[in-house]
Specification:
There is one protein chain. It contains 6 helices and 5 strands. By secondary structure, the protein is α+β, with helices and mostly antiparallel strands. A 3-stranded antiparallel β-sheet has the order 1-2-3. A two-stranded parallel sheet has the order 4-5. Helix 3 (about 50-65) crosses helix 4 and helix 4 crosses helix 6 (about 120-135).
């Protein structure tokens, strides 16, 4: 009996089972509402240009006072929204999300619906990044 339990713990996993692992997270949105998501690991290198965009925006507003170049702000906001849309779509396993305009509204939710609550979207991105990097403790208290 003891050997069976030991073998169960030490037995190798199938590659597909390992790759398809998900984690249940509770993500807080604006107004204090909490939403449950099942997230999966993604390859962060595929989204490196978007992560660089986040860092560039943060550095710009950290060092210098707000500039009056509205056109640049609009372009960066559009790039950021596109990055977050693709990132959330890749990292969320449940609830089922759709990225195309023709989707079944009874079975799926469009990613743009998640992006309507920017606090929820940014906390969800943080949770996906932490899970993909293998962090045990969340880097923010907005999800657990």
């Amino acid at each position: 009996m003891l050997n069976e339990i030991r073998n169960w713990f030490l037995s190798p996993k199938d590659l597909r089972d390992h790759i398809r692992q998900t984690k249940k997270v509770y993500v807080q949105g604006s107004g204090g509402s909490t939403v449950i998501f099942h997230i999966r690991r993604i390859n962060l290198e595929d989204y490196a240009s978007g992560l660089d965009l986040l860092y560039t925006i943060w550095e710009t507003y950290k060092k210098a006072p707000r500039q009056e170049n509205r056109r640049n702000d609009i372009e960066q906001a559009k790039k950021l929204r596109d990055f977050m849309r693709d990132f959330i779509y890749a990292g969320v396993a449940s609830p089922k999300l759709a990225i195309k305009e023709n989707y079944d509204a009874t079975k799926e939710t469009h990613v743009n619906e998640v992006l309507k609550d920017m606090e929820l979207a940014s906390n969800l991105c943080t949770a996906i990044i932490d899970y993909s990097r293998g962090k045990k403790k969340p880097s923010t208290k907005k999800y657990r």
